[in-house]
Amino acid sequence: MKQIMTIAALGVALAVSGCGKSENAGGTVKREAGNWKTDIKLVKFEVPGMPEEMKSGMKQMMEGASGMDQCFTQEQVDKEDIAAELAKGPGNGGECTWSKKEVGGGKIDVAGTCKANGQTVDMAMNGTIEAKKNDVTITTKGKVPTGGDMEMVLQMTSVHTGPCKPAGASAT
To answer: Which residues, 6+ apart, have CB-to-CB distance to 165 below 8 Å?
Structure first.
């Protein structure tokens, strides 16, 4: 289960960390500073041999992160660099090699292989990136330690909801 969680965290971390800036000639799209609400939907989760109660637990955990509010200051928005985030990989312990990296003109379409904590997964992110809304589908595929292939598809939608909330808003 821990290794499956690593795969799940990989997709979420990459998507959340780099949803703001474009790197190609299609024009720079930056998220607007302020409060953003992110919803996560687990669209598909297939792991051979995993009991249904564990799958349900994973779905609850992923969707439990829905409704998360984040405050992004103008300084944070100005420093966002999706190209740098994509190159680093998840957290500080992994790296990704991208076979496709098209980010610009309000769209993201990337695919590649990421390594973290001794695991290798194929990952793809596809969707739209706008100043006030991001809608990205993240597909992660890899081998599970018990044998077989796993596949997870997440839908992440982030919407600008206005100025940062003064109390209780978390900063990233």
So the answer is: 35, 69, 71
Domain, as residue range, for 34: 2-22+30-165
172 within a domain of the structure (yes/no): no
CA distance linking residue 139 with residue 122, whole number of Å: 8
Q: What is the pTM of this model?
A: 0.75
- Could you tell me if residue 70 is inside a domain? yes
Q: Residue 65: helix, strand or coil by DSSP?
A: coil
pLDDT in tens, 88-140: 555 555 678 889 888 888 888 989 988 777 778 898 999 998 889 999 999 99
What is the domain count for the chain?
1
Give tens-digit pLDDT for 133-165.
999 999 999 887 777 888 989 899 999 999 997
171 occurs within a structural domain? no
Q: Which residue has the tokens 């409060």?
A: 35
